[in-house]
Amino acid sequence: MVWALAGYGERLGEVGGYQFHQFPTIERLARVSEQELRDAGFGYRAKYIVGTAKILQAKPGGGEKWLASLRTRELPEVIEALCTLPGVGPKVAACVALFSLDQNHAIPVDTHVWKVATQYLMPELAGKSLTPKLSVAVADAFVAKFGNYAGWAQNVLFIGQLSAQKLMVAETTNTSTKPTKRKRSGNNVKT
Question: Where is each HhH-GPD domain found (predicted)?
Fold first, then answer.
């Protein structure tokens, strides 16, 4: 989806047959129709992207200035401000805060991060369901363990967890690395 959205930005050039674009400005995204984004595969997210771009455009001083101002605020205030945008909840707000707004201790808690937390930081909560209250406890546990860069530490653990899951799926779906010969008998294919 990032590549599709970047396609609306200014073309930077081509390398090895791949075209590269600058990420689109808020103004450019505000001109994209919801239907265009749906056709590009964004589904339900299309209306949120268009709506958010238009809201950001209307902010005093513009969206870029408003977003940049969030860099100097405390994390709870940043999360609250971002959650006023269409389709943005606490997890997405924490992602934006961590990856774009210098909030290095923001923890985007979802089921994957919950799994990491119960495996490494809070094993006593394994088997429980993730709630908003427990999301706060998870974030606090990561910050207590990893300090000011807890968000990045969480991200490394999260990516490691995803990689481990992909490896497990690959191992269970491909039990043999040797190619199998196929014999053809009538319309049936036997391996």
Answer: 4-162
